Amino acid sequence: MAPITEVEGRRVALSNLDKVLYPATGLTKGELLHYHATAAGVLLPHLRDRPLSFLRYPDGPDGELFFTKNVPPGTPGWVTTTRVARSEGPARMVLVQDLASLMWAANLVTEFHTHQWLADTPDEADRLVFDLDPGPPATVVECCEVALWLRERLAADGVEAYAKTSGAKGLHLLAGVRGSSPQRVTEYAKELAVAAERALPERVVHRMTRSLRPGKVFVDWSQNAARKTTAAPYTVRARAEPAVSTPVTWAEVAACRSPGELVFRTEDVLARVRDHGDLLAPLLDRERAAALP
């Protein structure tokens, strides 16, 4: 039987704490749970009020990976859920609102993926996101070049962008927006992706066709669609090593000269949070959100 831990007055079962999930580094499930508990102060605000999809990998990144969108069987009654409209019919999804529900979800061994809208306002996007995905031999270094161009282009429209690593190969750009539907944000993001390809034709592709992507950065604008989700800030990825989707400064983006410079593991992120706090905190301030042109 899994040991029961009390978290903010809730009884949470935490299982298999000694299980090694990342053989490359020896990171155990207990250490992964410790990361989530320690990073909760910066992770939770980016999850709260957002219906979550879970990419679960209970046997580590080398085992089976599967997406969970509906409320998983056995979810405690005290975990908040919300009804979400889908084209195939309504569903119920999890909201991670507090430390107890975060630790319950982390015990499932999951990447956290969020929509670009809040549960109470599904028809209004509050985030714009670009997923910059390099096609080998391009790397995150080329993503940084494209990110800097997109930052300037967004700024010209009064939109302030922030960057984080994807925790995989690429980079994510995010901005706070208001007063636009997910459809309008998607259209705007596509317009900028097309403009980036025109400005940087040897570097950028805006179409998903894989045959077009070797050596270029795919500017994925489609994740702004209402049904799509993106890996949340501070989530640990199901990769060979426990890399985290980590907020970075624009100075770090501009200075990047090799892929390893923008790889952050769990211990690195906790140190960065101690030193810098949440670099994406401005995204949580609705007063700073921009209206799209």
From TrEMBL:
<dbReference type="Pfam" id="PF21686">
    <property type="entry name" value="LigD_Prim-Pol"/>
</dbReference>
<feature type="domain" description="DNA ligase D polymerase">
    <location>
        <begin position="28"/>
        <end position="279"/>
    </location>
</feature>
<dbReference type="InterPro" id="IPR033649">
    <property type="entry name" value="MtLigD_Pol-like"/>
</dbReference>
<dbReference type="InterPro" id="IPR014145">
    <property type="entry name" value="LigD_pol_dom"/>
</dbReference>
<dbReference type="GO" id="GO:0003910">
    <property type="term" value="F:DNA ligase (ATP) activity"/>
</dbReference>
<keyword id="KW-0436">Ligase</keyword>
<dbReference type="InterPro" id="IPR052171">
    <property type="entry name" value="NHEJ_LigD"/>
</dbReference>
<protein>
    <submittedName>
        <fullName>Non-homologous end-joining DNA ligase</fullName>
        <ecNumber>6.5.1.1</ecNumber>
    </submittedName>
</protein>
